[in-house]
Amino acid sequence: MDPLTRIHQLAQKLKKRIVFPEYHDSRILQAVVRLAETGGIQPILVCPANDVPNSIRSDSQITILDPQDSIFQKQFPFIFYELRKHKGMSFYEARKIINDPLIFGGLLLATGRADGMIAGATNSTANVLRAAVWTVRTRPGTTIISGSFLIVTPDHDFGDDGCMFFADCAVNPDPTARQLVDITRETAATAQALLGMNPRIAMLSFSTKGSARHPMVEKVRQATELVMGNLPGATIDGELQLDAALVPEVASAKAPNSKLGGNANILIFPDLNSGNIGYKLAQRLGRAKAIGPIIQGLARPVNDLSRGCTVQDIVDLAAITSCQAREPGDV
Description:
By secondary structure, this protein is α/β, with parallel strands linked by helices.
């Protein structure tokens, strides 16, 4: 079964409440209507009461919330002030900022009124992540936010029937060895939550098992040693070149004792240069489908869209966000 089909089927069962703060974008409106029609994901549209299109207003499956509603104006300034006062924010500033749809959407998550949020169709990644950090904050024990991509290749020989995860391809330009550990841990959790993967993780470099010496290689070696103690249930190896991570014949020659044996399903890149270039090469030259970035490390799921996204991209990311919000007692 196609991985996206599996993700959508799980999202249908979970029935999570997903916030869409970019009400003025026609693609968002179309996606919200489509999601409401399928009946699984419960869309919440952040929209001033006077701006709600008639086609949306009449749909009982779509929840519409106005930041100016008196109940929110009474509660949210105090909540947001408590979250940000340690950074010097005044109550007056908090009262103004909660009207920002991104901040308002994040506060819906922070107060348990929603399960996830999607934005980025008209907002920059920086704005989306800032709102997320200011409201839902990072997951306890995580010191870094990162972005992974679900890569679905036409060649089913790679990963798990053609499915792999690449990280970090979206957020951190030059993570430290310890930050690579957090990125790896979060990506393994994403792979397990979305597809039930048994993580087989390659820590990538331009060197395989000491074939080169350089500070960039040493960072990956250190990260590999650290992460092995943090993910006891996963198969991890590094430092590895890409071919040694993905091709069993190459692995047997370059890294004959590798635990992965050329069968990685998660690739951890040493920096944003290589990660961003790598996923786009897979997408454009390898004809792979690249879904993401899936934002990792937040206490509640907030995901970022490309400003060139399609309606289907929004619908797919809504399903992924729902699965990220899955709780232990859920289906």
